[in-house]
Amino acid sequence: MESILCIDIPVQMISCTDTNGKITPMKFRFCDRNGEIVTINIDKVLSTDQEHSSLGANFVCLAPLYGTQRTFHLRYNYFAHEWRMSRISG
Description:
The chain has strands spanning 9-10, 12-17, 23-31, 37-41, 44-49, 56-65, 68-77, 82-89. It is mostly beta strands. Strand 6 and strand 7 (68-77) form a beta hairpin. It is globular.
């Protein structure tokens, strides 16, 4: 499974932003190395770092991938308005 995944790649994200600017990632998708679109529904946000003085926000999320619960490390860049997946573990 790990062999078909690209790490540190851009992802398409569906997120919710509240009136205070807090971002909650909900669902994302990306292309694996075989060119297949993989859609991930986030079950739980385990941790977040959304300091507005930094360049972006970091999220650690729990979600199923190919039937197994995995931990996804995601980053939102405030200036580029871009989401990236930096790591998958678990």
